[in-house]
Specification:
This protein is an alpha/beta fold. Helix content is about 45%, strand content about 15%. The radius of gyration is 20 Å and the shape is globular. The relative contact order is 0.19. Bound molecules: 5'-O-[(R)-(carboxyoxy)(hydroxy)phosphoryl]adenosine and zinc ion.
């Protein structure tokens, strides 16, 4: 069984072709068929995963411009789907199932992918599975590590979302905490924009802060007053802007690497501190880290350090599967379809901006 998946929730146009595991019969992993040790079945095979980033379109504005994003998706989606099929070496007639991101994300962008997928599914009379973008990010971890043991505690850190999920079994997601203001990636993007370093901010901060001393600027780790598992990054962003103004830190400043390393370090600490609190509460067997910011080396290292101390198995997708991509959407859709193989093409499937 082959699935064609489409992802257009933000500023990446992506299409992927995956082959279902278990000899192509996804129904081998229905509800309750997960082995007793909690491990899920084999992972699907990713035949292609094409991602076209719109970074160059949005870079002059220092952030994503929604109207430009949707127009860009319209221009490129057909070519990206074509490329995914070509790289996979199959034609549309070989596709058994379609998958698409429904939300959360930019509504105009989501509608481009959703309408395109609906058109294909309707014409070819094949089922279409709608997928949640945040659940798809979590699925990226299982795509490379199908044997992750449940219960799983997941830390999702992207440009638009920062959240902790408890997964007691496959396809069950309990939200334990989320950001009350900025997402971690958004804080990195805003600081980079303020310093004129370009967009997206995360990778450029990582690059320029690489040799810096993470202890040079003493940032306080943000904590919510009620000690809940929620995150808050807006205070940290304000503190960073104050440092920049008070110390006169600029783009070509010799102190820039120290400043960026310190900022990146406190963001990573805030994230892992909350993960630790959550792990104490829910006692998971495994930890997963996902979303665009999970590409960050400092965060990955702190995450692994914590997992080692806590004696828990820990998984992070390879960098290409951390940022937005359609393979993770296809992988999740296959699991959802396996539970409900009678799913038909629902042309009423709607996009949603918020979760
Ligand atoms: O998951 P993603 O591709 O899109 C959303 O769903 O938001 O995440 C994009 C975010 C951006 O904020 C970007 O700055 C951040 O991921 N990012 C990084 C790195 N690479 C991407 N942040 C820190 N270090 C990186 N290497
Ligand atoms: Zn994302």
């Amino acid at each position: 069984m082959l699935i064609l998946a489409i992802e257009t929730s933000c500023d990446e146009t992506s299409a992927a072709v995956l082959r279902a595991p278990n000899g192509g019969r996804p129904s081998l992993a229905p509800m309750g068929a997960v082995p007793l040790d909690g491990r899920s079945s084999a992972a699907p095979e990713v035949l292609s995963n094409i991602v076209l980033s719109q970074d160059e379109v949005h870079a002059p504005y220092g952030g994503v411009v929604p109207e430009l994003a949707s127009r860009q998706h319209i221009k490129t989606i057909a070519a990206i789907v074509d490329e995914a099929l070509t790289r996979a070496g199959v034609g549309l007639e070989a596709v058994d199932l379609y998958a698409v991101t429904q939300g959360p994300g930019l509504i105009g962008s989501l509608l481009v992918g959703l309408s395109f997928a609906k058109g294909l599914a309707y014409y070819h009379k094949k089922p279409l599975v709608g997928v949640d973008h945040l659940e798809a990010h979590l699925e990226a971890c299982f795509l490379e590590n199908p044997g992750i043991e449940y219960p799983v505690l997941g830390l999702l850190v992207s440009g638009g979302h920062t959240a902790l999920y408890f997964m007691e079994e496959p396809l069950s997601y309990k939200l334990l905490g989320r950001t009350r203001d900025d997402a971690a990636g958004e804080a990195l993007d805003k600081i980079a924009k303020f310093l004129g370093l370009g967009y997206p901010g995360g990778p450029v901060i990582e690059k320029l802060g690489r040799g810096g001393d993470p202890k040079a600027f003493p940032f306080a780790v943000p904590r919510t007053k009620d000690r809940s598992l929620d995150f808050s990054f807006s205070g940290l962003k304000t503190a960073a802007l104050k440092h920049i103004r008070e110390h006169g830190i600029g783009k070509d400043d010799a102190r820039l690497p120290d400043f960026l390393a310190s900022f990146e370090q406190v963001v990573a600490r805030a994230l892992v501190d909350n993960l630790r609190l959550a792990a104490d509460t829910v006692q998971p067997r495994s930890l997963v880290l996902c979303g665009g910011v999970a590409r960050n080396t400092r965060l990955r290292a702190r995450f692994q350090d914590f997992a080692r101390q806590a004696g828990l198995d820990a998984y992070v997708p390879s960098p290409k599967l951390c940022t937005d991509n359609a393979a993770m959407v296809g992988a999740l859709a296959l699991k959802k379809f396996a539970r409900r193989p009678d799913m038909a093409t629902d042309l009423d499937l709607d996009a949603y901006a918020r979760s």
